[in-house]
Amino acid sequence: MALPEAKQTATEARLAALTLPEGGCLAAARHAALSRVQTMGLPGRRDEYWKYTRPDTLVQADVPEAAVFETGEPPMFNDFDRLKVVFVDGVFDAEASDDLSLEGITIERLADAEKKDIHWAKDLYGVLEARGQTPVQRPLAALNSAFATDGVVIHVTGKPSKPINLIYRHADTGSDAILHHVIRVDAGAEATILENGPAAARFNKCMEIDVADTGSLHLVRAQGRDHERRAATHLFARLGKESVFKSFTLTVNGVLTRNEAVIELTGDDAVAHIAGACVGDGDFHHDDTVFITHDALNCESRQVFKKVLRNGATGVFQGKILVKEGAQKTDGYQISQSLLLDDDSQFLAKPELEIYADDVACSHGSTSGAIDEEGLFYLRSRGVPKAEAIDLMTLAFLAEAVEEIEDGDVADAIIARLQGWLARRH
Amino acid sequence: MLEIKNLHVKLEDEDKQILKGLDLKVEAGKVHAIMGPNGSGKSTLSYVLSGRDGYEVTEGSAELLGEDILELEPEERAAAGMFLAFQYPVEIPGVGNMTFLRTAVNAQRKARGEEELSASDFLKEVRAKAKTLKIDADMLKRPVNVGFSGGEKKRNEILQMAMLEPKLCILDETDSGLDVDAMKLVADGVNALRDEGRGFLVITHYQRLLDHIKPDVVHILADGRIVKTGGPELALEVENNGYAGILAEVDA
Ligand SMILES: Nc1ncnc2c1ncn2[C@@H]1O[C@H](COP(=O)(O)OP(=O)(O)O)[C@@H](O)[C@H]1O
Ligand SMILES: [Mg+2]
Fold it and tell me: Domain residues for A89?
């Protein structure tokens, strides 16, 4: 079927500005991804899946500029014992990074893995992304698989002693970064990945995660700082038997962020928790789009998304739980809530459940509301100044999402960021 | 301590006058009780004094320790020494009771230019005061008033009062919904705070509470005005004959 003309033109224009890396063991995967993009076309304003978020600036050939912003705060996770992997405007920076060797984990640069004739990454690269194209198309992810210029390939074989911190620095106001990471977690292995930084003026990031039976992976990311930056990220995860995958994302600032998470629970008793807290002010647009598929027995999934919006900021949530036939004893939970600090802000939510098994417990809820005036007066009547009382209630609102972070120190660091964001607005 | 003159209050959004020329003076060291039929304006008085939105003062004044409080923000009134134990304490999901108490105590200290309480001093004090009110560690950890029983909420109000050490304490029907034992706890908590520098305004329907918290002065509030003032015997009269007799006598 031919694409609508506008979509065809936009897609061609974007593709013309990119070069497909040739050679290496991922060449076939890249070519296949390119033809997926060509068939699907890049997202357009008329697409149902982009009803609440305008994809134009994520798709257009020219990169909208983004100033580099100084908050005065030290970078996130700065004082953590971690292994740093640094990218500047989407390019791996060996100098700024730590030595990549660490017991229990193998980290390689994507370009190095790609050069080899045989590499396990070949079985994963573009594979989970391709699976994630049905039933809903995600063309920006396919574009990423085709054209990613950098990234890391991580193999978790044991229990590394410290988290891996992927740091995305932004230096060039016109940078357009496409990063692709592939992560494989072996049976019984366990690791934590931290991600932070604005990355680039425009950032397209794709992460494919395969967690084997009994493996576990924790992902905590902080997207923030540079207000003018734009990002489209995709997370594709496949979970084996009794495996665990937990992801939390903090987003502060950013004119446009679209975070998609596509999770497949394929082994019995697997657990997936996807959470996010975002705080937005002014021309801030944040979109969480989540698709969780239960395809095994007795799996648990939780989606917890909280958004604090002010001065006309927009929050979007599209979250789906699909329970396939035979996925009995599924425990699915989804909550998306926004706290609107004024009348100009808006929250657009589309929660969905699609269930083909009869013995399941799934619940979803979505709410949007203002600060509770009664509670505010109660706090103030006890001497808490208005601004502080609002902050207290705002943090309380976000708490359910932040509580999804297992590591207490990481959670504290995230809370400190949220407090900083609130304090800067007094 | 508290001096209210000719206070007229109407609802902000409605053309409804609730307080219609209320005069009241509470001296330091004294306990004044206000009794009155439902809907007479008792809670409104307590809200207006503590600065809740939704009411408009159309006439009159209210001073706390010589300072006009009606123009102050609720938190400024609190720092000036005003405290209201709510008739219906508010639940605040997600905010831990302990965090709430510490934030409040330190905010008031800061507003008064005093040093903040250290975490350990604060803990010591809270634990001691909670214990006398039979508030357990679990209640201190839980979100403010969330899932508390009626009695627990009222005891939590008294704990806040004990921690904040206000100058003027208003208790709005703190006895409602309490069984005899809980009422005794609450009354003991209040009595422990009685001292020369502190005034109390105890709003209640029943004589019951006043058996435990002995008032110096009793006022009858009806239709937005103090219609009668007397000693503790006035509360007994209400208990025995209801308001009808008093109101008829006033009308006459
Ligand atoms: N916010 C409000 N909105 C509408 N009516 C109110 C409000 N506050 C008080 N009132 C009305 O004002 C009158 C006095 O109420 P209240 O002060 O609660 O009396 P009391 O505490 O003595 O029972 C009642 O008729 C009540 O319905
Ligand atoms: Mg009342």
Answer: 5-371
Give the number of domains in chain A.
1
Domain count, chain B: 2
pLDDT at A155: 98
A13 domain-assigned: yes
- B chain contacts of residue A397, beta-carbon cutoff 8 Å: 94
Answer whether residue A387 is part of any domain. no
Q: Which domain holds residue B161?
A: 73-195
What pTM, to 2 d.p., does this model score? 0.92
Let me know if residue B11 belongs to a domain: yes
Q: In this structure, is residue B79 part of a structural domain?
A: yes
CB contacts, 8 Å: B105 with chain A: 383
CA distance A373 to chain B (A): 9
Judge if the beta carbon of residue B44 lies within 6 A of ligand 1. yes
Q: Atom 4 of ligand 1 has which residue's CA nearest to it?
A: B11
Around ion ligand 2, residues with a beta carbon closer than 5 Å are B 42-43, 87
Q: Distance between CA atoms of A247 and A194, rounded to whole angstroms?
A: 10
Q: What pLDDT is recorded for position B252?
A: 59
| Shortest Cα distance, chain B CAs vs residue A201, angstroms | 36
Q: Is residue A63 part of a domain?
A: yes
pLDDT for res B186: 87
Q: Whose CA is nearest to atom 2 of ligand 1?
A: B11
The pLDDT, as a whole number, for residue A1 is 65
Q: Is residue A399 part of a domain?
A: no
Q: Are B82 and B173 found together in one domain? A: yes
